[in-house]
Amino acid sequence: MSTRILVIEDDANLVDILTEVLTTAGYTVEARSNGQGLASAMLEPPALILLDLYMPGMDGMTVRKHLLEFEPTAAVPVVLMTAQANSRKWQNDMQAVAQLDKPFHLDELLAVVRAHMPSPEGEQL
């Protein structure tokens, strides 16, 4: 079973941190922004998507709408990431499995990831 996580985020510093933490935990990570992330997900659906809600150009709401309309990606679990206050309603509206409010703790990130996808091979629990 795939342990590939697709990170769709426009903040390069956060992408670097997420990639390092998740790779160290044994996951395969691919990072893209906006429409590139959508295209990547449609080409090869990942096990999990970490999706920034607010990005310039194609925002997370638009990306999620397209993911839900495309049968191979409709069931891929999506975790929303946002710094926007009072955005909890988006989690339900966008059919996301969880939401991480920025800034979030890395242990919170790992707990959410582990709850919604298979453990990587050889992971030490």
CATH homologous superfamily - what is it? Response regulator
Structural class: alpha/beta
What helical percentage do the residues reach? Answer: 40-55%
Oligomer: single chain
Distance between the termini: 18 Å
Q: Give the C-level CATH assignment.
A: Alpha Beta
Q: Gyration radius, to the nearest Å?
A: 13 Å
Strand order, largest beta sheet: 2-1-3-4-5
CATH architecture: 3-Layer(aba) Sandwich
CATH topology: Rossmann fold
Q: What general form does the structure show?
A: globular
Residue stretches low in confidence (pLDDT < 50, at least 5 long) are none
Instruction: Kindly state the number of beta strands.
Output: 5
Biggest sheet descriptor: 5 strands, parallel
Mean pLDDT: 90
Proportion of residues in β-strands: 15-25%
Number of helices: 6
Order of helix and strand elements from N to C terminus: EHEHEHHEHEH
Question: Helices and strands in order, then pairings?
Answer:
Elements: E1 4-8, H1 12-24, E2 28-32, H2 34-43, E3 48-52, H3 60-69, H4 71-74, E4 78-82, H5 88-93, E5 98-101, H6 106-116
Parallel strand pairs: 1-2, 1-3, 3-4, 4-5
Helix pairs in contact: 2-3
